[in-house]
């Protein structure tokens, strides 16, 4: 059974790999035996993550600067990965942003920025990864959505209408890709994390004691997710253990969405 989760010989690409859940997932992939390419805009942070993973696991890590909202940038980044490793087995579309505000207070620019990163980014990276997966007859694509694709919140600090909308769009894109590419040996699934501490949340949500108290009171687990608690789901959907799982959305939220 353990061999089903073994990624030795596989190559994984992680967008948004310079911090938070992306960096955690990249380390998990390497610990499972994969070589990893981490993509993000901040080169210094990428290089630091690369060094940490290589030291901890001995696996090969490629750090590539990439803005997932820019097509030529994405095209060049994927070409660099293929030039280094020759193929891509796993794609974790993790890059994302959360812009606070409701439709009555957001600017058009803020709305567009959410969709450019959270939806267009997945489209562009997948556009340049999928063709070689189809040629090889194998691929595992995991899109990071959010529990907020299916659950909204009326607490002021958590109102993010563009985030709700863009992450819901990720689910639609996941289903469409899954249905189209299953015949090529490619599985496409999505994960919906709830609140995890990351660079994106530590300076906002985790600094609000009032919000955390409300979140913990409403969540059956009574707490946010801990570092590494998303990795099991990521590895499952990225490995042959999920070979017949297609177009699904797995929520990792401590039970928050069921109450």
TrEMBL record:
Keywords: NADP, Oxidoreductase. It comes from the Bacteria. SUPFAM superfamilies: NAD(P)-binding Rossmann-fold domains (SSF51735). GO terms for molecular function: gluconate 5-dehydrogenase activity. Transmembrane segments: none annotated. One of its GO terms (biological process) is bile acid metabolic process. InterPro entries: NAD(P)-bd_dom_sf, Sc_DH/Rdtase_CS, SDR_fam, Sec_Metab_Biosynth_SDR. Its EC number is 1.1.1.69. Belongs to the short-chain dehydrogenases/reductases (SDR) family. This is Short-chain dehydrogenase/reductase SDR. It comes from Ruminiclostridium cellobioparum subsp. termitidis CT1112. The lineage of its organism: Bacteria, Bacillati, Bacillota, Clostridia, Eubacteriales.
